[in-house]
């Protein structure tokens, strides 16, 4: 039976009335009434679309927003081990050398669809992933960026603190792409400025993206130079990329197939930990 505009439905033959969906709902919008889950009418508008109720249901009896539990991946037996996660985190590197071969569209879609599940403030699902796949477009962005920097250098209009871009331009003229590292793809993550936590949300998303890309054998690098260039030196560039003026650009990343291979983790030393006991 289906209950409420949230399309919450319960298979009563599967439901064991355990109450886990009620207990785990962040805003308490679900109740047992009296045997099976249903939405509390006056709380319906408080739903943040987290789908915790679907995820916590052991028997797959509960659906919300028309989602079929059978289309979700079971967690038991499918999670990476702690050792695998530790190696992934310690083994990821900032990749600065890439092959010219682009990544297939379906693989990029898989990356972005996965990263769209990352945590956000108040379950804010308004992140915009602006990705450059087309190689001709990527080359045009590279060229236009460098010509915009050249214009700023010649006109002595580089923003204060970014004077070092004159040296980056000199390197470009010698065939060295320091900003984009010759990578075949660019990713920009933005979020509405009026959201609850626009900048942290974008940084979390890019962190997840980097780890997921690494797990698939791809490389990425956090590209502060690109962000400075495309937002501070050429402020009109983000509009050309299709990013709304109402969005805050959190950060940028270039990615692709690495032209270099790492064979082991590095050794950073112990974490600096401040343990508090009151």
Q: Estimate the global geometry from the Cα principal axes.
A: elongated
Q: Can you give the helix content as a percent range? A: 25-40%
The count of DSSP E runs of length 2 or more, i.e. the number of strands, is 9
CATH class of the largest domain, named Alpha Beta
Order of helices and strands: EEHEEHEHHEHHEHEHHE
- Continuous helix count: 9
The CATH superfamily of the largest domain appears as NADH Oxidase
Secondary-structure content class: alpha+beta
How many domains make up the coordinates? Answer: 2
Biggest sheet features: 4 strands, antiparallel
CATH architecture of the largest domain: 3-Layer(aba) Sandwich
CATH topology of the largest domain, what is it called? NADH Oxidase
Please indicate the percent range of residues in DSSP E strands (runs of 2 or more).
5-15%
Low-confidence stretches: none
How much is the average pLDDT? 95
Radius of gyration: 23 Å
Q: Separation of termini?
A: 51 Å
Record the strand order, biggest sheet: 6-7-9-8
Can you give keywords for this protein?
3-stranded antiparallel beta sheet; alpha+beta; 2 domains; Alpha-Beta Plaits; 9 helices; NADH Oxidase; single chain; 278 residues
């Amino acid at each position: 039976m289906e209950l409420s505009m949230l399309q919450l439905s319960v298979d009563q033959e599967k439901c064991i009335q355990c109450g886990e969906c009620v207990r785990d709902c962040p805003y308490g919008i679900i109740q047992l009434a009296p045997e099976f889950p249903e939405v509390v009418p006056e709380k319906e508008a408080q739903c943040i679309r987290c789908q915790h109720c679907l995820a916590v249901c052991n028997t797959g009896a509960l659906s919300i927003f028309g989602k079929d539990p059978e289309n979700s991946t079971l967690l038991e037996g499918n999670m990476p081990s702690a050792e695998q996660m530790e190696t992934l985190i310690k083994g990821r590197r900032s990749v600065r050398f890439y092959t010219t071969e682009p990544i297939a569209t379906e693989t990029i879609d898989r990356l972005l669809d996965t990263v769209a599940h990352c945590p956000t403030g108040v379950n804010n699902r308004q992140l915009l992933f602006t990705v450059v796949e087309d190689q001709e477009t990527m080359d045009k962005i590279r060229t236009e960026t460098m010509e915009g920097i050249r214009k700023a250098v010649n006109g002595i209009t580089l923003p204060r603190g970014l004077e070092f871009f004159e040296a980056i331009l000199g390197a470009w003229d010698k065939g060295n792409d320091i900003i984009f590292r010759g990578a075949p793809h660019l990713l920009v993550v933005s979020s509405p400025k009026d959201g609850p936590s626009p900048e942290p949300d974008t940084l979390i998303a890019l962190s997840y993206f980097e780890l997921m890309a690494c797990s698939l054998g791809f490389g990425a690098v956090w590209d502060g130079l690109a962000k400075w260039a495309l937002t501070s030196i050429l402020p009109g560039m983000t509009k050309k990329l299709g990013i709304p003026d109402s969005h805050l650009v959190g950060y940028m990343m270039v990615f692709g197939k690495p032209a270099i291979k790492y064979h082991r983790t590095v050794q950073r030393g112990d974490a600096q930990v401040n343990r508090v006991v009151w």
